[in-house]
């Protein structure tokens, strides 16, 4: 049923771009069961509760304040303020003995990159302010990857930020043809790279279209990162990628503290716990906030079975 899955995925990704559907959906309380599975809440209290529970179970966390594609400067500023508050609260948490249990993840489009005037400069300055506060609080920062039209701008901003914050992380997506080269360029000393498959609908001239090709690319990229001198972050729920990370890290002579697994909140919780229990570092990406629509739609598109649960929850209200 690959063609049906592909069509369903395209329909969901089209709905993800519709402002009208977005406005209607975001009015629904986040407590609705299916959204809640992927987004623990809208408030700081709710995300800190979820984060504290994950830390207590031996996992690490990366918190994302939901929002993307900001088109006005005041919204970008509100995002900066939300991150500064979040980092302040994270800095007060009692944390485990793990070396870097706390991280925040940022989308540059939420920090103003798409603003018509000086967007890139504004996003850089905003991300810099967040990185300063995070460094003071002992919190890592990683910059998320958005659609392929933004990759060059994201990597330009990341390179500038890394001059001041060498441990700033960035995300690369194995579905893009360019990513093997980006991995080779960015796998140097101290470099933190989160490798994921990629969650946006991308055209064939820039991205692999089949699962087999995306997976093969992931494995080639992962080998480059494991053999490099940076810090690989293996962001996948796929059992084949998880097993390959184990083999490739061992072949490269890496100790468990020299790389980590990452998974999304609400996905394969049992596997997250199993990996933590066998001594692997596991970080869970935990999104929160009222603008959950785009994030949630990407989770539906990844696994159309989720759509059935979602529709069932809507009709059983
Ligand atoms: P898949 O082959 O898609 O899935 C493997 C298995 O995982 C599935 O069989 C299923 O059991 C489970 N699974 C996967 N997705 C779901 C789901 N939605 N619901 C239920 N089960 C599921 N993408 C970006 O484009 N930019 C980013 O910045 C980004 N950051 C990420 C950060 C983290 C920590 C993670 C884990 C992912 C991130 N992603 C990002 C998403 C990523 O690109 C993939 O879309 C997503 O992780 C699914 O790919 P997969 O490797 O898990 O493999």
Automatic annotation (TrEMBL):
One of its GO terms (biological process) is L-proline catabolic process to L-glutamate. It comes from the Bacteria. The keyword Flavoprotein applies. GO terms for molecular function: nucleotide binding; proline dehydrogenase activity. Pathway: Amino-acid degradation; L-proline degradation into L-glutamate; L-glutamate from L-proline: step 1/2. Its cofactor is FAD. It comes from Williamsia limnetica. This is proline dehydrogenase. It catalyses: L-proline + a quinone = (S)-1-pyrroline-5-carboxylate + a quinol + H(+). Substrate binds at residues 107, 298-299. InterPro entries: FAD-linked_oxidoreductase-like, PRODH_bac_arc, Proline_DH_dom, Proline_oxidase. Its EC number is 1.5.5.2. Binds 1 FAD per subunit. FAD binds at residues 173, 197-199, 211, 236-237. Residues 57-309 form the Proline dehydrogenase domain. Keywords: FAD, Flavoprotein, Nucleotide-binding, Oxidoreductase, Proline metabolism.
